[in-house]
Amino acid sequence: MHLEHYKNKFKHVSFIREDSILQLTIHCQGGGEAFWTPAEGGLHTEPGQAFYAVAHDPENKAVILTGTGDAFLTRMDTAGVGPEMATTHFWQCIYQEGKHLLQNLLGIEVPMIAAVNGPVHIHSELPTLCDIVIASETASFADKAHFPGWTVSGDGVHVWWPMLLGPNQGGVVLIDWRGYPGSRGKDTWICG
């Protein structure tokens, strides 16, 4: 697979490659700050597919993962989802997409750098699974998609944060609305 095959395939993920270094940017359609949506064809679907394409492009020698605007990923939009959200089929799709999201990210076998441009409160495991994490002064890490919505963290954050910080501090990241400050990331080796 080559860049020309996937460069314009996604509405919420854009790519720029220079000297074999690929920048993968998560954004809202049109380039604005990203917001997560579980609606079909939304941001929940595309990153896993994009990671798969990137992993299978032999011309990529390094990947930079970043966002746009003042936040990496903080907002969620469920407006496009109706009664189907209460169906088994919907949750099976969410499960499959979540599984592909992590497996395909981990399938990228070149160095990955996360350039965290601001708070990441939804899928905060994505940038922290990269080999190097560089965070802005305004960055913070949290899981505001699950606990506030009365669901358990079950898409990777529930395993990853306790592994990074230990069971107690990792648990705090999963339920604390304030988030884990990026400035503390250097002390705990999250950020380089």
Kindly list the characteristics that best describe this protein.
single chain; alpha/beta; five-stranded mixed β-sheet; two-stranded parallel sheet; globular
Describe this structure in words.
With 192 residues, the chain is an alpha/beta fold. It has a single domain (3-185), classed as 2-enoyl-CoA Hydratase, Chain A, domain 1, CATH 3.90.226. 31% of the residues lie in helices and 18% in strands. It contains 7 helices and 9 strands; from the N terminus they run αβββαββαβαββααβα. Strands 1-2-4-6-7 form a 5-stranded mixed sheet. It starts with a helix and ends in a 7-residue tail after the last helix. The model has no long low-confidence stretch (mean pLDDT 85). It holds the Pfam family ECH_1. InterPro entries: ClpP/crotonase-like_dom_sf, Enoyl-CoA_hydra/iso. It comes from Fusarium pseudoanthophilum. This is Enoyl hydratase.
